[in-house]
UniProtKB/TrEMBL annotation:
One function term, GO molecular function aspect: phosphatase activity
Active site: 8, 10
Lipid biosynthesis is among the record's keywords: no
Species: Oxylabes madagascariensis (white-throated Oxylabes)
Superkingdom of origin organism: Eukaryota
Record bears the keyword Magnesium: yes
Cofactors named for this entry: Mg(2+)
One Pfam family this sequence matches: Put_Phosphatase
UniProt protein name: PHOP2 phosphatase
Annotated residues for binding of substrate: 19, 99
Coiled coil: none
Gene3D superfamilies membership: HAD superfamily/HAD-like
Family classification: Belongs to the HAD-like hydrolase superfamily. PHOSPHO family.
Alphabetic keyword roster: Hydrolase, Magnesium, Metal-binding
Length: 241
């Protein structure tokens, strides 16, 4: 019996959006209107690239960014949940699939000592250039019309499962924990024994219920959570069975 836990990051593991939190480092903690208005739907990664250039141009250094990012609060109950998963790693494989970036996620998980809970993190590759500017790239290319250009979470999940099968690893159940619109695509890939856990009051919950109303519900079970303790209770129940 082994479970695969798939986590989104922003507004799921942490209670904020890491990409918008970094704006606290900007002069007067805000971005100029021209930059803010330059975002085009589906091109968030490119937009963040421009934000990082602006921060670099204004002398914001890596250590200041790191200090700011590691003050982001975790979602209610999330530290208890991650602690529990860490203590029961023989039962859980655990991955993150996120539209954040490798630098932010690495900083935040390591500062809270949760990096060992996760087997893999799939997100946009980021690094500091020789001039000290943070740069970010697309995770991959894909052909899914429903997802932003840089990331289709269904593709990531499918490729991960295929790779695990080649290694002889299959799962009793996939538990998908997320909140955003870009979490719907992988949720529609889940089978009837799997479970989607959308965060209460967020886009994913609304989109799943819209599908049910239009009589094309998702195949998997759905359990809405408001605190990660709800997820923890579910996992404890499953282990007892």
């Amino acid at each position: 019996m082994k479970f695969l836990l798939v986590f989104d990051f922003d507004h799921t593991i942490i209670d904020e959006n890491s990409d918008t939190w970094i704006v606290k480092c900007a002069p007067e903690r805000k971005l100029p209107n021209g930059l803010r208005n330059s975002y085009q739907p589906g091109h968030w990664t490119e937009y963040m690239g421009r934000v990082f250039v602006y921060l670099g141009d204004n002398g914001v250094k890596e250590d200041e960014m790191k200090r700011t990012m590691t003050t982001i609060p975790f979602t209610a109950g999330m530290k208890d949940l991650l602690g529990f998963i860490g203590e029961n790693k023989e039962l859980f494989d655990c991955i993150i699939v996120s539209d954040s970036n490798t630098v932010f996620i690495d900083w935040i998980l390591k500062a809270a000592d949760f990096h060992k809970v996760f087997d893999e993190v799939f997100t946009n590759p980021a690094a500091f250039s020789s001039t000290g500017y943070l740069t970010v790239q697309h995770l991959h290319a894909h052909h899914c019309a429903k997802c932003p250009k840089n990331l289709c979470k269904r593709k990531v999940l499918k490729e991960f499962l295929d790779k695990q099968l080649e290694r002889g690893v299959s799962y009793t159940q996939i538990v998908y924990i997320g909140d955003g619109g870009n979490d719907l695509c992988p949720v529609t890939f889940l089978k009837k024994d799997d479970i989607a856990m959308p965060r209460q009051g967020y886009t994913l919950e609304k989109k799943i219920s819209q599908l049910a109303q239009s009589l094309s519900p998702v195949q998997c079970s759905v359990l809405v959570w408001s605190s990660a303790i709800d997820i923890l209770s579910y996992l404890k129940l499953r282990i007892k069975e």
